[in-house]
Amino acid sequence: MRMRVKKWARPELAACPYYVIDPEGARGRWAARFPKAQPMYLELGCGKGVSTCRMALEDPAHNYLAVDLITSVLGVARRNAEEAYRGVREVDNLILTNFHIEYIYKYLSGQDRVERIYISFCNPWDKRPKQAKHRLTHPHQLRQYRAFLEDGGEIWFKTDDDRLFEDSVEYFKNTGFEIAYQTRDLHASGFTPNYESEHEKMFDAKGVPIKFLIAVKQHLDGEVFREYRPGEDPPYI
Known about the structure:
Elements lengths: L8 H6 L4 E2 L19 E5 L5 H9 L4 E6 L2 H15 L8 E5 L15 E7 L18 H8 L2 E11 L2 H12 L3 E7 L2 H4 L8 H8 L5 E7 L20
Parallel strand pairs: 1-4, 2-3, 2-5, 3-4, 5-6
Antiparallel strand pairs: 6-8, 7-8
Helix pairs in contact: 2-3
């Protein structure tokens, strides 16, 4: 379901100290955008930030970069962050920004060291076979993530979609990741911590099992990433 345009979102984000309006200009320098120098986690497709804000609030030892494409959605995420942090502390370890994740090489580089990536309930792109290349777990995306994800870094992936999950398991295995944990029914597994997003709560209420895995980046001998320069063809693909 599409969210209606929220006219208040753009001006509220523009005035928000933890919203980055120029993500391409921050490429290679994301660490400097946070008040504290500490390891960074990245969430791709944060939506309204229901789970994002709880994760960041309860984990002050990590910086969280939360990305979504839609400005109106990020406006809601900002309000949720204000509510979550109110009375506890300032929002000091969370940055919101928007860009098209398929072109993430334009916004993060090898200098932006990331220890963990969260991908939750992304579009399964399963209507036609050719659409699969748009999946956020497709090999051409995983190769882009490898450029800035630390060796031993993790990708935490959740979905309600069976086919996307099974395909993604193979995608990870074929691009230098080891599956360290997986379950086809997260809520029955007892795995913790599990921060539920709005989508997760909706699927759970419908009785749809949540599929979840943790993929760990393995070091590949001879792996070289060509640094992207604006105007060039995309690297890592």
